[in-house]
Design brief:
Blueprint: H1 9-14, H2 16-29, H3 36-49, E1 53-57, H4 60-70, E2 78-82, H5 87-95, E3 99-103, H6 114-119, E4 125-128, H7 140-150, E5 153-154, E6 165-166, E7 169-170, E8 177-181, E9 195-199, H8 202-211, E10 216-218, E11 221-222, H9 233-242, H10 246-263, E12 279-280, E13 286-289, H11 293-302, H12 332-340, E14 341-344, H13 352-366
Parallel strand pairs: 2-3, 2-4, 4-5
Antiparallel strand pairs: 1-9, 6-7, 6-12, 8-9, 10-11, 13-14
Helix pairs in contact: 2-9, 3-9, 4-5, 4-8, 10-13
This protein binds pyridoxal-5'-phosphate.
Pyridoxal-5'-phosphate (PLP) is lined by residues 59-61, 85-86, 88-89, 131, 157, 159-160, 181, 183, 193, 195.
Length: 367
C-alpha cells in the first residue's frame, strides 16, 4: 500500500463537473478581476463565519499583512505571536514594520498559552495574534479576556483551522480582524493562491477593500499606500464551489484522526495530539511527537507512507530572523516541537484502511 501525505486529486475528481462549469462561467463572464465571483464568495464566507464582512485577498500572508495595516500597526508597535508557527505569522508583523514578541505554546495543545501572553505585554504591545495551529482552536475566551483588559487588538491567524469551533462559534470570528488562507493544501484550498480577511468592523472592512486594490476605492483616487492583492476571480469561483463541501471534508479528517487516536494509544514514546474540551478540531495536521522522529519517518517512508514535519526549524532560528539575535534555547518548547513532531497523512478521501496501515507501520517500528 502507498499512503501519500496529502492527495488533492481525489476530492477534485469528485466535483470535477462543477469545477469545469465554474471555469466556463468565468470565461463567459467577460470580467476577470474583482467580478461577481469574488463578491459572491465574500458573502458566502461572511455568512458561513457569521461575521459582517469578508474581503478576498491574494494569499493568507497578505490577509495578515493587510489586517495589521488596516489596524494602523507599524513601527514601534509590538505584536504577540506564537514561538511555534509557520513563518508567515511572523513575516506579516515584520513586513508591516512592527516587532514580533514570541510567546511559548502549551506542551500538549501546541497553541499559544494565555498565561505566557500576560508576561510579555508591555506599553508598546498592540496586538495578540493567536494561531489555531494544526486545526485546533486556541483558548479564545482567555485570549479575548486579556485583550479586553489590556486594550489590545486580536488578529486570528486562521489559516489552518477553517471550520473549527470553540463552543458553537467558528474560529475567525473572535478577533477584531482575522485571516484565512486558501493555499491548496489548507482545509479549504483554491487551485492556486488565495486568502481572505474576516471582520465585523465596517470601517476596517472598507479600508481592507481599498488596501487590496492599490489603496483606492474610487478608480485613480488613492487614499492609502496599498497593494495589488486582489483575490483572483477564478480562484474565488472555485472556492464557492468547494465551500459547501468543507464540513464533510472536515468530517472525513476527523474519522482518520479518530482511527489514529484510538489505535495509537500507548505505542512507544508517542505523544498523541490533545484536543481540549468544548473544542472542535479540524485536524489540518495530525501531529504526533516522538524522540525517534527521524528514524520513524525513514521507517514509514520505506513502507510507502509519506509524512512531513511542521515545522523543522522554528522561526527564531531561521537565517531570515538572525538579526533579532535569538539563539538556541531561547524558546525551548518551540524547539522541542520542531525536533520531535511528525505529521501523519490525513486528508478527505483517505480511507480508514490507509490509516490502519499507518498505525501498523508505526507499531512495527516500536516493536
Ligand atoms: C498557510 C499559512 C499562512 C499563509 O498562507 P498563504 O496563503 O500560504 O500565504 C499563514 N499562517 C499559517 C499558520 C499558515 O499555515
Amino acid at each position: 500500500m502507498k499512503v501519500p501525505y496529502l492527495d488533492l486529486k481525489t476530492i477534485h475528481h469528485q466535483i470535477k463537473a462543477e469545477l469545469n462549469n465554474s471555469f466556463s462561467d468565468f470565461v463567459d463572464s467577460g470580467w476577470y478581476v474583482l467580478g461577481d465571483g469574488v463578491s459572491i464568495l465574500e458573502n458566502q464566507l461572511a455568512e458561513y463565519h457569521n461575521v459582517g464582512h469578508a474581503i478576498g485577498v491574494a494569499s493568507g500572508l497578505d490577509a495578515l499583512i493587510i489586517s495589521l495595516h488596516a489596524l494602523g500597526i507599524g513601527k514601534g508597535d509590538e505584536v504577540i505571536v506564537p514561538s511555534n508557527t509557520y513563518i508567515a505569522t511572523w513575516l506579516a508583523v515584520t513586513k508591516i514594520g512592527a516587532q514580533v514578541v514570541p510567546v511559548e505554546p502549551y506542551h500538549h495543545t501546541y497553541n499559544i498559552s494565555p498565561e505566557n501572553i500576560r508576561e510579555k505585554i508591555t506599553s508598546r504591545t498592540k496586538v495578540i495574534m493567536p494561531v489555531h495551529l494544526y486545526g485546533q482552536p486556541c483558548e479564545m475566551d482567555a485570549i479575548m479576556a486579556i485583550a479586553n483588559e489590556e486594550n489590545l487588538f486580536v488578529v486570528e491567524d486562521n489559516a489552518q483551522a477553517i471550520g473549527a469551533k470553540v463552543g458553537s462559534r467558528l474560529t475567525g470570528s473572535f478577533g477584531d480582524i482575522n485571516a484565512l488562507s486558501f493555499y491548496p493544501g489548507k482545509n479549504l484550498g483554491a487551485l492556486g493562491d488565495a486568502g481572505a480577511i474576516l471582520t465585523n468592523d465596517s470601517s476596517l472592512a472598507e479600508k481592507c477593500r481599498s488596501l487590496r486594490n492599490y489603496g483606492s476605492s474610487l478608480k485613480y483616487v488613492n487614499e492609502y499606500l496599498g497593494y495589488n492583492s486582489r483575490l483572483d476571480e477564478l480562484q474565488a469561483r472555485i472556492l464557492s464551489v468547494k465551500l459547501p463541501y468543507l464540513q464533510s471534508w472536515n468530517d472525513d479528517r476527523k474519522k482518520i484522526a479518530d482511527v489514529y487516536q484510538e489505535r495509537m494509544e500507548g505505542i512507544g514514546d508517542i505523544v498523541l495530539p490533545h484536543t481540549l474540551m468544548g473544542i472542535e478540531n479540524v485536524y489540518h495536521i495530525f501531529p504526533i511527537r516522538t524522540n525517534n522522529r527521524d528514524r520513524l519517518q525513514l521507517h514509514l517512508k520505506e513502507k510507502g507512507i509519506q509524512t512531513l514535519i511542521h515545522y523543522p526549524f522554528p522561526a527564531h532560528l531561521q537565517e531570515a530572523y538572525k538579526y533579532l539575535g535569538y539563539k538556541k534555547g531561547d524558546f525551548p518548547i518551540a524547539e522541542e516541537i520542531a525536533n520531535t513532531e511528525l505529521s501523519l497523512p490525513i486528508y478527505p478521501g483517505m480511507t480508514e484502511e490507509m490509516a490502519e496501515y499507518v498505525v501498523e507501520g508505526i507499531k512495527m517500528f516500536f516493536s
